[in-house]
Design goal:
The chain is 35% helix and 18% strand. By secondary structure, the protein is an alpha/beta fold. The strands form 2 sheets. It has a two-stranded parallel ribbon. It has a two-stranded parallel sheet with strand order 3-4. The protein is extended.
């Protein structure tokens, strides 16, 4: 996983009172942010270290993600279902930009 560091474009896209979330390792890249724009938007930057989360925190987060996935009103658009034997064909179609949606590869 690569570090995700907010930049000036992210600050401009923020709504008034918005928050930027920085997910950066200890050796992560520094970002230059227009602090004045953050101030004018009454915005904030929040960072966190996943390694500080407790087992209970992680379990709670996992339950939240499962709930969102289970209860979401949206579903991915399935363009086609293909047997595993046509994986190479599916890959070529994806690379060529011929697919609108997801290709599901199914066991024989």
């Amino acid at each position: 996983m690569t570090d995700t560091v907010p930049d000036a474009d992210a600050v401009e896209a923020l709504a008034a009172g918005g928050r930027l979330v920085a997910m950066v390792g200890l050796g992560g890249a520094a970002a230059e942010l227009p602090v004045g724009r953050l101030y004018a938007k009454d915005a904030s930057i929040v960072g966190f270290a996943l390694s500080n989360a407790t087992t209970a925190d992680l379990a709670d987060a996992a339950r939240g993600v499962v709930g969102l996935l289970r209860d979401a009103p949206w579903r991915p658009r399935v363009a086609d279902r293909l047997p595993l034997s046509l994986t190479a064909r599916a890959h070529r179609a994806l690379e060529a930009g011929e697919v609108r949606g997801r290709l599901l590869l199914t066991p024989p």
